[in-house]
């Protein structure tokens, strides 16, 4: 920084004059973002490459943004070998060449969204504390520390924020239980075991804006009186693990974590624990067992983790997105957040489009947007160009829905009434070539492989489910076996200890109900 | 394929037990230390050997059976060394919607081993993975730790290159 009235240092004259933004998100890297960034960095001393998270327009990755007087101008997708030609043609001046997209903020996909949780993802350097502060970071934590713990909890209750991990339980109510529990030690645990196919918002948030999660967990700790926090992050996300660990170090150096946070006298510290490849550890009680160093086997509830959680202490267990949404709620007030949404589904949700979709990526909008708007307007239909046949909403345990149900609004209650679930907002698109009997079989197969084995309906039911579907498809006593399948589904739903066995019937039943023709050989 | 054959049995590492004990003692103060210890052992040696289990159990004052139960519960912990190159292919729904099953068939056929297996010459291991969180850019494959999106059979062949 040069102060006014002072002669600039000679080095300042050589400072880069053009800033170019290239994502370091692992999805962008999977299609060549690192190579693109290297090519641009190698150009000359006049260009500075800033590695950001992804904007979430994944079909445009690698997406290169050039800072101009008219904002950040996008180009994408950019292949590494295109870089030299694009630069020669004027890309660094924002010229309309090659895959030029214009100002990124003005793109219809971006403009239609209401980004609160994801407001900084793709915009900032995820490991720049200066960027974080400049873009409104820490405002929520400062506001929280000026309030009583009880007032912070009531703010979250009033905002209507519900768990983003799938079950949709009101976050503030959970916090109130932990606040009122009497214990010498309490914990905040972030469930970042995002194992469901079709979901990647947790990963993108941690890779793109990790300080938001740290800030949200610190606010949660202050609100309930917790001294220690753990992020249970899956091993399949090595980039997210590295980014979060680096961010925690930086946050400690800034006094955002540690014994005396922002000089308030409140102390809280945060640790990352890496999972070891078990889907069931996304279930909160399994996650707690795993954090304790045991096999990730489900615990019966009650006692609820809010009262007897990690090492038997009162514990807040929330999803990444729930915690990462807290800073904006506390900074701007409960009413500002609750003004978004519909019915009892308030605020915004981060929807994730994946599978066979033309424009896959992250869409953050208020609840109430319809499934069809997400799949067709944002997603642009299938990537194969064939008609959409089915979409699975809410992960491998969510229902398969036909296009006839595309007018369903994204709303916890509306989905439940339709025999489906919003879950964490993951939407996987399939075209007409999909074999729904095979997908139903896969749901059972997955449950059989990933069941923790503690309860019989899940452990044995899933195996019997695979066999029953095989008999149906083979045409063996089809009618009786369909009845048996329904009976098995009912038993698993009612009798399983946790959502793994309890929800596996959801994709199966929806496949039979909406795509019954696939179950006839 | 060359005719070079690498012994499948792991070569004993001198001083391994001592080193495993050091790792375990260094991390034992963590809450829920067992899984971080197992990760650290695997990071250093490539797999968790049966004798390691007794050493770790001793340091943490746990039953050997308890540590064994944890090692075998989690897919990440290998009991034997992997091949020199590990190929992990996502088989979850989003990647299935764009041909991940066909890609896996191709990989197993061309590499010459199945999921969870290593080629006879120790060059390549193939694993099935459920979700790298790259669901909009599938099929997704991780080759030697690097993630690749939109992988076709031809692209996979190119990525494997000399490793195969």
TrEMBL record, chain A:
InterPro entries: NADH-UbQ_OxRdtase_51kDa_CS, Nuo51_FMN-bd, Nuo51_FMN-bd_sf, Nuop51_4Fe4S-bd, Nuop51_4Fe4S-bd_sf, Thioredoxin-like_sf. PROSITE patterns: COMPLEX1_51K_1, COMPLEX1_51K_2. It comes from the Bacteria. The keyword Iron-sulfur applies. Keywords: 4Fe-4S, Iron, Iron-sulfur, Metal-binding. SMART domains: NADH_4Fe-4S. Belongs to the complex I 51 kDa subunit family. This is Formate dehydrogenase iron-sulfur subunit.
From TrEMBL, chain B:
Its cofactor is [2Fe-2S] cluster. Binds 1 [2Fe-2S] cluster. Pfam families: 2Fe-2S_thioredx (PF01257). Signal peptide: none annotated. This is Formate dehydrogenase subunit gamma. It comes from Kribbella shirazensis. SUPFAM superfamilies: Thioredoxin-like. Keywords: 2Fe-2S, Iron, Iron-sulfur, Metal-binding. The keyword Ribosomal protein does not apply. GO terms for molecular function: 2 iron, 2 sulfur cluster binding; metal ion binding; oxidoreductase activity. [2Fe-2S] cluster binds at residues 90, 95, 131, 135. It comes from the Bacteria. Belongs to the complex I 24 kDa subunit family.
């Amino acid at each position: 920084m040069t102060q006014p009235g002072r002669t600039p240092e000679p080095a300042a004259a050589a400072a880069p004059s053009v800033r170019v933004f290239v994502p370091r998100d692992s999805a962008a890297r999977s299609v060549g973002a690192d190579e693109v960034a290297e090519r641009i960095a190698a150009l000359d001393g006049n260009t500075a490459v800033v590695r950001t998270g992804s904007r979430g327009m994944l079909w445009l990755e690698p997406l290169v943004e050039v800072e101009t007087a008219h904002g950040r101008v996008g180009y994408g997708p950019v292949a590494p070998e295109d870089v030299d030609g694009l630069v020669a043609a004027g890309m660094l001046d924002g010229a309309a060449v090659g895959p030029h997209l214009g100002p990124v903020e003005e793109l219809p996909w971006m403009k239609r969204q209401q980004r609160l949780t994801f407001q900084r993802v793709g915009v900032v350097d995820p490991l720049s504390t200066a960027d974080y502060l400049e873009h409104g970071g820490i405002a929520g934590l400062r506001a929280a520390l000026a309030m009583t713990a009880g007032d912070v909890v009531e703010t979250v209750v009033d905002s209507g924020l519900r768990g983003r991990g799938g079950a949709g339980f009101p976050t503030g109510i959970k916090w109130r239980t932990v606040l009122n529990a009497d214990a010498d030690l309490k914990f905040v645990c972030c469930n970042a075991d995002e194992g469901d196919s079709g979901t990647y918002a947790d990963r993108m948030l941690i890779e793109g804006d990790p300080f938001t999660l740290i800030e949200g967990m610190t606010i949660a700790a202050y609100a309930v009186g917790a001294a220690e926090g753990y992020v249970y992050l899956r091993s399949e996300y090595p980039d997210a693990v590295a980014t979060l660990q680096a961010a925690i170090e930086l946050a400690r150096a800034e006094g955002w974590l540690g014994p005396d946070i922002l000089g308030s006298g409140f102390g809280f510290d945060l640790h990352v624990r890496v999972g070891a490849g078990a889907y069931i550890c996304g279930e909160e009680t399994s996650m707690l067992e795993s954090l304790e160093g045991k096999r990730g086997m489900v615990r019966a509830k009650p006692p609820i983790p809010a009262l007897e959680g990690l090492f038997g202490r009162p514990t807040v267990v929330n999803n990444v997105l729930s915690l990462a949404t807290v800073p904006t709620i506390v900074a701007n007030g409960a009413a500002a957040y609750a003004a978004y949404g519909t019915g009892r589904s308030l605020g915004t949700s981060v929807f994730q489009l994946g599978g066979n979709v033309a424009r896959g990526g992250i869409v953050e909008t208020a609840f109430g947007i319809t499934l069809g708007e997400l799949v067709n307007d944002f997603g642009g239909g299938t990537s194969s160009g064939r008609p959409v046949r089915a979409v699975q909403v809410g992960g491998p345990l969510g229902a398969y829905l036909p296009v006839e149900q595309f007018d369903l609004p994204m709303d916890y209650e509306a989905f439940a009434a339709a025999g489906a679930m919003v879950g964490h907002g993951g939407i996987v698109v399939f075209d007409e070539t999909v074999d729904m009997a095979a997908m139903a079989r896969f749901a059972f197969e997955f449950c059989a492989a990933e069941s923790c084995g503690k309860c019989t309906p899940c452990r044995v039911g899933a195996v019997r489910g695979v066999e029953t579907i095989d008999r149906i498809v083979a045409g063996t006593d089809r009618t009786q076996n369909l009845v048996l399948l329904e009976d098995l589904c009912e038993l698993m739903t009612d009798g399983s200890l946790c959502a793994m066995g309890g929800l596996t019937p959801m994709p199966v039943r929806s496949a039979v109900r909406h795509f019954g023709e696939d179950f006839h050989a | 394929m060359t005719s070079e054959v690498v012994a499948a049995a792991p070569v004993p590492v001198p001083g391994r037990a001592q080193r495993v004990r050091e790792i375990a003692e260094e991390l034992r103060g963590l809450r829920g230390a067992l899984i971080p210890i197992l990760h650290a052992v695997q990071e250093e040696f490539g797999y968790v050997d049966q004798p390691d289990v007794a050493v770790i159990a001793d340091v943490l004052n746990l039953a050997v059976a308890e540590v064994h139960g944890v090692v075998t519960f989690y897919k990440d912990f290998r009991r034997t060394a992997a091949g020199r190159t590990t190929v992990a292919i996502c088989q979850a729904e989003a990647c299935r919607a764009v041909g991940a099953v066909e890609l896996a068939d191709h990989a197993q056929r061309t590499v010459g081993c199945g999921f969870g297996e290593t080629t006879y010459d120790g060059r390549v291991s193939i694993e099935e993975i459920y979700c790298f969180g790259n669901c909009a850019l599938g099929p997704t494959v991780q080759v030697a730790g690097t993630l690749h999106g939109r992988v076709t059979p031809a692209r996979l062949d190119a990525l494997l290159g000399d490793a195969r």
